[in-house]
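Reopening this one. Same input as before:
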Amino acid sequence: LGVLLACADLAAAPAPRNVILITIDTFRADKLSLYGGRHLYTPAIDSLARDGVVFDHAYTVVPLTAPSHSAMMTGRYPVSNGVKMNGSAVLDDSETTLAEILHDHGMRTGAIVSCLVLASRFNINQGFDFYYEEGISGSEGHHGLWFDERKAVYSIARAERWLESESDKPFFLWLHLFDPHHPYDPPAPFKQNYKDHPYDGEIVYTDRALGGFLRKLKEMGLYDDSIIMLLGDHGESLGDHLENFHGTFLYDATMHVPMIIKAPGGRRGVREEGMASTIDVMPTLVDAMGLAAPKGTEGISLMPAVMGSGSLPDRALYLESIYDNATFGWSSVRALRTAHYKYVDLPTPELYDLSDDPDELDNIDKQDPIEAKAMKEQYEKVRSGLEATARKDVNAAALDDAFRDRLLSLGYIAGSESKIVREDAKDPKDVVLLTDPVMYAQGQVKDGKYDEAAALLNRALQSDPANKIGLVTLGRALTGQKKLAEAEEVYRRALGFYPDNEEIYRQLGWLLIKQGRYGDAAELMSGLINVSPRSAQAHYLYGFALFYAKNWEKALQAFQESAKLSGVFSKTWYLMAICYEETGQRAEAIHALDEYLKRERDVESLFRDPYFVKLRETPEFREVIRKYL
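Same output, byte for byte:
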């Protein structure tokens, strides 16, 4: 009877007034004492655990920041919502996000994100009244290495200011902290205290910053009546399985994440054994507010476990990372995880008995053929079901050249999985040791050490001749050496392996344009459009080659198509204005300049550009300029 009364009390608990979601990037679960770690003191996270439910078996579905958060916000797998890589895809407007649902039910919605791959250009800001992304592309506290980031102290301070002005009504706040992501560089005194283990220092620093945020919530009277969910978006390998960071493999080092939920009237200081996932974030928080998750949601609500009203069902989770294919040209990694087994689909398949082998060191695919067959069949059934309804109309992210070059110079190709499948794509287990030298060569190219980079890459390519980022980087190193013919040969060799890769076309296209070979560049880019007709970048590059050839009308058509696909490229409108002026379409030229200035307050260039000499004499030009002075 006592148990029944307790359940009745929990069921009668009022819905939370507010929703607070805290996501911590690159947060390896077993570093916390809550998950068996022995060396780190994290009092803030521990205090939240005492007030809520700790999910012992919570897993991300993808070990990459933007796809993982997109999965959280939509409750859908990356294959379903279309966001499978950082910096490559835009979350489609037709996807329904957590913020949109809560906003539509009268809640104020605010987000503070702390790294560039979560910028609004990737459309993950859907449904937010306020989306704070300042400081992640060149202002306070950023590192500017793999990804610009804002340190936790700045993000939390901005979150607190938002709460001070907006918390008079029910609200949803998403606070994203990036600090544990590499490069590991905690501030003092954590940098000195953890000089031999800087990743640990980042976690302890993040916890201290969170402690201040939780105190602020209590001071403002917002803690008790808010549901607070804290989790990691993915973990970090730290050398396990020969992987230093994340993205390459789907082992639990990068897939097991901390997850804590504190809810008004919910259970306190208990642990949940059932399997939870990042795709459960949206349906859980929607359910907590008494709302229904939209049709197509693939996650489940964890509220029965939080409130003590029920248990979580047994289920299988589909895991995927296309990072290897998109970056190196290796095989993508896909897996199915159940409570006891993990099956990994690779050229050399893997099966792990997680009960006996939690570190996934003993591949029993050959030793246990019956279980291997059963898991493979279950995996193929799940995957085929997801692929049958997978989003096919994914818009490529419109990234300007500076953004792409910045990512590329630090070991990241902004791209997607190759649609043209190579039968000999390597198993990443067999070539993972090439990751470090190839990435090191990226840094050498960035520093202008072209000779050293080319020598290192040539050695790496002997072992892996089709290494995508290795070939692109070698082309850049040869260009830096002024060996343009050799660079062109490398890029064309790379296209032979990856005829649909936008980045290779871009690098080769610019090489041809810089040599004045505009016809060759235009012909090359027309080939890119054939394989990537929805890419705004492809049409932009095609137009740029035609522009240099002074083929104004065809260039204009290419720029118009690029602008139709994405309005992000401000330079597209600038070049369209020139094309309009050169073809006698002055009104359209003025409109294009207006569109350019909306995106780029660059009035000075318009006064210097010789293409606009006559246009500058018109009253229409002066009228547009006055709007932006």
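So the earlier flakiness isn't reproducible anymore. For the record, The CA atoms of residues 192 and 382 lie 48 Å apart.
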